[in-house]
Structures are given as structure tokens and as C-alpha cells.
Amino acid sequence: MKMTGRAINPGKAEGEAIVSTEPVGFYGNIDPKTGIVIEKGHPLEGQCIKGKVFVFPNGKGSTVGPYVIYGLKANGVAPVAIINKETETIVATGVILADIPCLDGIDISKIKTGDRVAVDIGDTEGAVEIK
Amino acid sequence: MYLTKEEEGMLNGEQGDVVQRNMRLIVRLGDIYKADRMIPIGSVQVAGVSYKSIGDPGTEYLEDIAIKGAKVRVPTFLNPTGMDMLDWKKLGFSEKFAKNQIRIMDAFGKMGVVLSATCTPYLVGNLPRFREHIAWSESSAVCFANSVIGAMTNREGGPSALAAAICGRTPNYDLHLDEKRVPQLVVQVDAELKHNADYGALGYFLGKAVKNKIPYFRGIKEPDTDNLKALGAAMAASGAVGLYHIEGCTPEAALFADKIKDLETVHVSEKDLADTYAKLNTGKDPDIVILGCPHSSLKEIATVAKELEGKKLKKPLWVCTSRIMKDAADRIGLSATIEKAGGHVVADTCMVVAPIEEMGYKTTGVNSGKAANYLPGFCKQSVVFQDVKELIRRLS
């Protein structure tokens, strides 16, 4: 199945999906050294986003979040791509700084954790393929 | 979004990788918020400076772009750092923290940023004019610049403000547009506001109530600039207020006199303020009193010095301010009066971004609604929230 959305940061990637139905905060919520979600009570608490296609509705929390996304990439534990329902400024800033492919405007309820997902994102639009 | 030839070039990498990446950031943000074009800016205020806030990832990012040759194109001032850059040892900051904080300052210095280390750039040489477009982060300074000065800025994050500085422009949306600066509700203040703590309590209460709306105040009489900085800081922290108007006081209020009659009115009573004090006072006996959130003006430092004349404090007192204001306070003898009583005039930092929780303090006394909002979460402190005079009485 293929879906199209709005490009936030261009690039191509493929990997296993990890899906959160809840918004995701980065600062204080994901460990930039390991890529493990450390937020207490979050549906993904204890899981690792390294090398995955990270799917969540939107970001939340501190405006220092972009530096954590950058840190994940610098430490080699970033997701290979991010897919959102609606990207807000924190995630948008983070993925552009870290150069992680990201798009939004996607019906994320169609994607399940464990699905094989490929993204191909150009300058303005991008496509998601569930294989 | 429309881009000029030069901007297209920046986006295509004609001016190097750092400019390209930062331009891409502000163009995408502009697209997300439906900006029509980029606008030139007069100045930038960058937040996200303390090692405590940005940690290793932020430090490494800043060093990376500084080494790659990032340079700011417009006057760019810096938010408070995590420590007093000169007196950190005397005040009890650790070597490890200091080492990382100095790395961050060096990176900003390389980029050509003015190392002002204050949340009150408008008091120390970065004063925009009425209706000037700027790109400031630091929510309290954003609120002051928009509301009290009538300059135009969105609530930028640290990286987006730095990107605006590197590119010399910001996307034209939201508070840069006249039609987005119209009040959205009327706030009738039916309470007497006696000092900065009262303004902070009002700000905290309203920020929670209005979130990111634009309030139009009635019933606030003759506030001074210190009162206004306390009010805006608290509203911007407990809510996400970026602009407020006060009837008969702030410069844009008169423009909207005929636009407010159909708006919803919120009343604020003496009881609302009393309830706010009760909510924010989570501690009883402060281990330390820290003033200067936002950073103290010279007038505020003078008030503290006057209160301390002839007193001996039993516990530490920090009066946080900018380096420039501290120099002025040193020169006219205010710092000496405060030091003689056992207090310190602390420059470059504040109670929110300094690692006070690692320095053994558990309960902090403040007169700031913004600090009272942040200290329990960011610094794991119990809070005593009162007027300056009351706080000093507790220490002496």
C-alpha cells in the first residue's frame, strides 16, 4: 500500500516501523545516547527507536527537543525516517538539523509496529510504502 | 513561499552547507506555518545556552556548525548561561559543568554572537524599535518586545532563532502580521497589584487560563517596566502568551479600542491572586533566595541593596542580572552593599538554568511567577513565592 504526504525533510529510507499512537516528546523523554524511550507511562517506554521508521502523530514538549533528535543521529541511534500525522516545529526543526527523512499528512493508523516501511521524500512531497 | 534569487541560492547551497541547512530549516518552518515570504530582521535573541538545558547533543551541534564556519548576519544576543562566567568557582559550580558551559560559550563566540548572557537584551543594548521585525527566542523577552515595545517576533525556539541569525531573515507569519496581533479576550483586573510578585502571580494565573491567546488588560494602573517584564515572563511560562495589550499603557492597545467590545471578558479577583500564591508556595523555609527572573534591572538591584543596608543574612541570597547591569551596580556601590550583607550579585545565569539542584539547595525563595512555575520541574525545588521585602525578612 502507498500513501503520499508533505515533505518535511527529503530523503529515502526503509526499515521496520515502530508506531506510537501518543505524541512523542524528545527532551527528557528519549535517551539521546541509546535511542530508548524513557518517558514514564509512554506506550513505547523501554523500546528503542534506533534504525526504525518512527511513526507518531506529532511532537510535544520542550523546545530543546531538536537538539535531542540531532544527538540521536550524532550517536548513531536515530530512526532512519520519521512519519507524522502532523509535524510541529520541534520535530521539524530536529529532523532538518539532523537530516533525517520526514514527512507528514499520513494516515498513521494504517501502519503497524513491525511493518516493513519505505519512504521516498522529495522537496515538496513524499511517499510511504508498506511492503 | 516566495523566495528572492539570493534566498534561492542560499537554499541551493551557493553559500555553503551551514547556510543551506539553516535556510532549509526556516523555509520548512515557513511552509508549515504558511508564510508567504521571508522578511529581513533587525536582531536575534538565542535561547538554549545553558549546558543544563541543551546537554551534550546541543553542545556538539553548536560546536559542529561553529567549526564549519557558521556566522550570524544580524546583531545576535545570547540568553543566560548555566553559571556566572567569572565567579562560578566562588559560587560553588562544579569544574565539569563549567568546562562544558565554556565550550558552549566558545562556540557561540566563534559564530559572532554577542555573549550578553541575559534574558533582558532590551535592557543592555539590543532595543528594537516599534514595529521592527526581529526573531527572538526566550519567551519572556519575546513577550516584552512584542507587548511593551511593539516590535514583532514569534516565539522562536533556540535552533530556529539561531538559523534566523545565520540567514538574516525569518519567515513572515503569525505575530509578524498585523491581523494576528488583535486581542482575543479582555482581562479585567479587579485586584490591586503592589509589587513584581503580584504581577508574577497575575501572569501565572492568566497564562494557565488563556494559553496562547492575546489578552487585552483593563484595570492595571501605571505599571513600571519591571512590573511588565514580570507579568509577561509569567504568562509566557505558565501559558504560551507571546503578546499582550494593556489599555492606556502598551503601544498597540489604542489600535484595538473599537475591536474589543464583542470579546469574552475574564475577571481576575483578589481571591484569584491569593489562590495562585497558595498554589505556587510549595515550600516553607528557603535554603536560598534567588531574585532576578527575568534578570534584574538596576532599579531592582537598588531596591534589594536598600533593603539589605545594615542587615546580616543568615542564608545565601543571589541577585541575578546581566554582566552589564552588574558592572553598573558595582560602579555605584550597590553590589558592595549587597555583598556586605552576605548576598551576591550573580551575573550571566539564573535560578532556572543554573544546576541549583546539584548544589544542595532544596527550597528556593523567589519573587518571580516564571521561576515559581519552572523551579519544581527543572530544578526539583520546593518554592517560596513572595515579595522581595518578605523574602529578605526571612533571611535576616
Structure description:
The complex is a heterodimer of chains A (131) and B (396). Chain A is an alpha/beta fold and 131 residues long. Chain A has a single domain, classed as Phosphohistidine domain (Glucose Oxidase, domain 1, 3-Layer(bba) Sandwich), CATH 3.50.30.10. Helices cover 15% and strands 34% of the residues of chain A. Chain A is built from two helices and nine strands. Chain A has helices spanning 65-74, 89-98, and strands at residues 2-9, 11-19, 24-25, 53-56, 59-60, 81-84, 102-104, 116-121, 125-130. In chain A, the strands form two sheets. In chain A, strands 1-7-6-4-2-8-9 form a seven-stranded mixed barrel. In chain A, β8 (116-121) and β9 form a beta hairpin. Chain A is globular and about 35 Å long. The relative contact order of chain A is 0.30. The model of chain A has no long low-confidence stretch (mean pLDDT 93). Chain B is α/β, with parallel strands linked by helices and 396 residues long. In chain B, α8 packs across α10 (270-280). Chain B has 15 helices and 14 strands. Chain B is 42% helix and 13% strand. Chain B has three domains: 5-178, Aconitase, domain 3, CATH 3.30.499; 182-278, no CATH class; 281-395, 2-Layer Sandwich (Aconitase, domain 3), CATH 3.30.499.10. In chain B, the strands form four sheets. Chain B has a five-stranded parallel beta sheet with strand order 12-11-10-13-14, sandwiched between helices. In chain B, strands 8-7-6-9 form a four-stranded parallel beta sheet. A three-stranded parallel beta sheet of chain B has the order 3-2-4. The A-B interface holds A 8-9, 32, 63-64, 66-68, 70-72, 74, 87-90, 92-93, 96-97, 99 and B 21, 24-25, 28-29, 32, 47-48, 53-58, 60-61, 137, 157-160.
